């Protein structure tokens, strides 16, 4: 049979439902029962992408992150562990919407020709999935697509999204001077734990940190990581039930805590000033929190993690004696206004990009060290290859410089530089707090968050909302931004923006103001403009 015929035969087992699909901010994401045809076709796309990249490995991750248990999703990982290059998203969308098996095969061949892909360049695809009930069947759909092209994918089983990003980068850099690590989970755990132990050497024993794993894949993976970490840290794992599918992200996890600004109900009697953290369903997001002595909840979100990491790294670079090192922070419009002011006060450049990891990641590449975090806890720290080389070649002049340099080097190993990684970020925060001997309230006191409110509005068509200035201003519908500005001007420290969601058919409204009551009121008033 020709390739066309085998694709058509295999595709016929995965009929497309009557639905329009779009490769969005984080791939395709929706109710899992709508996804088999999409995942099959993403398998074909992955093969094309790998061949386009000269036969390098690409990754396919099956997950719907913080979404409810009945959802699932699929996204592609590029050879260096980054998200799929945006220009290819449109090919994915077109393939997913092809009306018939014949059209699928035709479009596959068309792309093959368009990119002049040679038959002798073999595709290499790795796959991983989260713990959802629907995940194994979706992996089967992906494997069926690849098998129809005579490709045997490398299946990493149930892994966190960042673990798969890590593995893809390792596979493509093996044996080069950019080698990133062993392309196995053991390699991942070994790399993180060795760096962590080095950084914690000589630090006094810390109180335990409690980690809510959203009843997702982060639970078992954190359980494994703990074995490698030994007694260098005490981690208490909660919400780690991956057997009861309905519990995933339910009343727990990073999104629950961030959106509701409250504890997961499973933490019934929180210890004042103890450290708590929550991961999301695929463990690429983390937020911290604590209760103070009067039992009031305090969130330490992505902005707080970014400022903590940036100030610590700047200090380490200075203490190492490395000069002319440019470190910048990347945020989105959701970053709390006071976090931005705090970064400016530290004398660091700060830029704002549209929402979505790929935008932040891209902007962070402009610095020797780019610290990027979304307020919701997605983020990491990137060191440029030039910066890594400078760190490696730097000759310290004093024992103090030498010790700082050693820590800086270990940090570059501890941080997952392919994508935000909740497990790596957890260890990063723990290291910094240990080095500063900080309790969570001391960390929190760097700056006080401006009261804020996030609302969502159901609208007939979110596509009529067009933004500019990193989503901070609307250009369409005409006149709406002026009305928002007029409202905002009535509040001290007021700020508000409206943007269409990239993952749901809604429009989001964010507002900040001097008091909680004013922030809520401003959000309500702006929302009322949308109807
Ligand atoms: C996706 C993005 C996340 C972003 C969110 C915004 C990735 C891996 N994930 O989950 O970064 O915060 O979308 O959703 O990029 P929204 O457009 O619905 O507000
Ligand atoms: Zn996630």
UniProtKB/TrEMBL annotation:
Q: Which residues bind substrate?
A: 374-376, 499-503, 508
Membrane-spanning residues? none
Q: Where is the Phosphoacetylglucosamine mutase AMG1 domain?
A: 188-287, 301-438
Q: Which GO terms describe its biological process?
A: carbohydrate metabolic process; cell wall organization; UDP-N-acetylglucosamine biosynthetic process
Q: Which Gene3D superfamilies match?
A: Alpha-D-Glucose-1,6-Bisphosphate, subunit A, domain 3, Alpha-D-phosphohexomutase, C-terminal domain
Q: What does this chain do? A: Catalyzes the conversion of GlcNAc-6-P into GlcNAc-1-P during the synthesis of uridine diphosphate/UDP-GlcNAc, which is a biosynthetic precursor of chitin and also supplies the amino sugars for N-linked oligosaccharides of glycoproteins.
Know the name of this protein? Phosphoacetylglucosamine mutase
The encoding gene is PCM1_1
């Amino acid at each position: 049979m020709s390739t066309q015929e085998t694709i058509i035969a295999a595709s016929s087992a995965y009929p497309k439902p009557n639905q329009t699909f779009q490769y969005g901010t984080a791939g395709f994401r929706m109710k899992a029962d709508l996804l088999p045809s999409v995942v099959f076709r993403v398998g074909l796309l992955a093969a094309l992408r790998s061949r386009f990249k000269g036969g390098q490995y690409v990754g396919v991750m099956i997950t719907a992150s913080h979404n409810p248990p009945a959802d699932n999703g699929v996204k592609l990982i590029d050879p260096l562990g980054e998200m799929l290059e945006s220009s290819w998203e449109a090919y994915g969308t077109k393939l997913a919407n092809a009306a018939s098996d014949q059209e699928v095969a035709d479009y596959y061949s068309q792309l093959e020709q368009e990119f002049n892909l040679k038959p002798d360049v073999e595709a290499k695809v790795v796959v991983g999935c989260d713990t959802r009930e629907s995940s194994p069947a979706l992996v089967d759909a992906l494997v069926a697509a690849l098998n129809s092209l005579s490709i045997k994918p490398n299946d990493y089983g149930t892994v966190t999204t960042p673990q798969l990003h890590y593995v893809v980068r390792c596979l493509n850099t093996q044996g080069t001077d950019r080698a990133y690590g062993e392309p196995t989970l053991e390699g991942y755990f070994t790399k993180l734990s060795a760096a962590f132990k080095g950084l914690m050497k000589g630090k006094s024993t810390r109180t335990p940190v409690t980690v809510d794993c959203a009843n997702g894949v982060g639970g078992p993976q954190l359980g494994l990581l703990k074995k490698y970490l030994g007694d260098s840290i005490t981690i208490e794992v909660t919400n780690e039930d991956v057997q009861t599918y309905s519990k995933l992200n339910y009343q727990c996890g990073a999104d629950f805590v961030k959106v509701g600004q409250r504890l997961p109900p499973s933490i019934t009697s929180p210890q004042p000033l103890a450290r708590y953290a929550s991961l999301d369903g695929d463990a690429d997001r983390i937020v911290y929190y604590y209760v103070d002595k009067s039992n009031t909840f305090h969130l330490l979100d992505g902005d707080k993690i970014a400022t903590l990491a940036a100030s610590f790294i700047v200090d380490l670079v200075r203490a190492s004696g490395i000069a002319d090192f440019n470190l910048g922070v990347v945020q989105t419009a959701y970053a709390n206004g006071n976090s931005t002011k705090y970064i400016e006060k530290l004398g660091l450049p700060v830029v704002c990009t549209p929402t979505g990891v790929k935008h932040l990641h891209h902007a962070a590449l402009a610095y020797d060290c780019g610290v990027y975090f979304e307020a919701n806890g997605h983020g990491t720290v990137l060191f440029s290859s030039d910066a890594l080389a400078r760190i490696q070649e730097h000759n310290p002049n004093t024992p103090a410089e030498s010790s700082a340099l050693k820590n800086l080097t270990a940090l570059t190993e501890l941080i997952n530089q392919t994508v935000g990684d909740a497990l790596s970020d957890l260890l990063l925060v723990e290291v910094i707090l240990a080095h500063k001997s900080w309790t969570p309230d001391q960390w929190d006191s760097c700056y006080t968050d401006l009261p804020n409110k996030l609302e969502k509005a159901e609208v007939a068509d979110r596509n009529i909302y067009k933004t500019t200035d990193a989503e901070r201003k609307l250009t369409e519908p005409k006149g709406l931004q002026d009305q928002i500005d007029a409202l905002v001007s009535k509040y001290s420290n007021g700020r508000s923006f409206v943007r269409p969601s990239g993952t749901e058919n809604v429009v989001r409204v964010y507002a900040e103001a001097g008091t909680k009551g004013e922030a809520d009121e401003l959000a309500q008033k702006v929302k009322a403009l949308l109807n």
